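Self-study notes.
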Amino acid sequence: MLGVGAYRTRSRPALGAVLPVPMSEMTWQLTDEKNQRVRPADWIDRPVMVFFGFTWCPDVCPTTLSDISLWLEELGAEADRLIVALISVDPERDTPDALAAYVGNFDPRILGLTGTADEVARAASEFRVTYRRVDKDDGDYTMDHTAGVFLFYPDGRFASIIDFHDDRRFAVPKIRRTLS
């Protein structure tokens, strides 16, 4: 049995290869909805909540951003300490202006970030997020992407992930642990 277990785990990536890089070691640079450059170093010393998505998303993204808005409301004044950001995986369509209009439909504390295709790819790689363009028959496209919400402690260490299907009863305590 030990041999079988060793064989099966040999092909799996090391845990550090699947967890996000600590915020203090990330090197991405993106542009927010106000056309300001943002780097992970700007976020050190504050708890961080990040979600990857896109403005043309039909269901997962608006649902998640609505959930995040409800979580922030439940946290009350505590939520003001958080940096909350949506990083777009669709830089072709998600300009800063498009992101401003989109995130404006949710809690005002949610930032929208975008960049060039290479800049978004770097951020996704450091968060260990996957995404890909999926062409449709009508000539349009959509994006498949990792749908979890990433939480980081103020010192930049990865804290937890809130799964797309996590109930508020589980999500809010995860966020509170990040705040403490």
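Second protein, same conventions, sequence then structure:
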Amino acid sequence: MTGLMTPKRLFLGAVSIFIGALILWGATADIPPIPKFFAAQDKLEHFAAFGALMLWLSAFVGPRNWLYAALIAVCCAVGLEVVQAYFVASRSGDIPDLIASLSGVAASIGFIFYVRSMIRSRRAAQLA
């Protein structure tokens, strides 16, 4: 049980909480903190935010436990849309934003699998 609270895991956990809080703040602010440059920028922001959250969460729980990280990220994405729909008067939760958020999570999962396969192939090449 001593391996659970290493400084690295504490740091990654703190950064994960910070990223989640930053996403929540940005998504519930009355005035969006990022200036709008094009029409679909909101979807890109959702994609990038939840993709980054997924990567940090997977670093926190470990790449082998990516499913736990994905479950947490998906719950956060759904929760954010619920908060926007019911608790923030100046915002509205909608399905396209949720799809963009879930796409960011899915892209991060794909990236994790790609990196893991590259590491495995390099290790196999070194052993051969």
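Instructor comment on the second fold: Helices lie at 7-28, 41-61, 66-86, 95-127.
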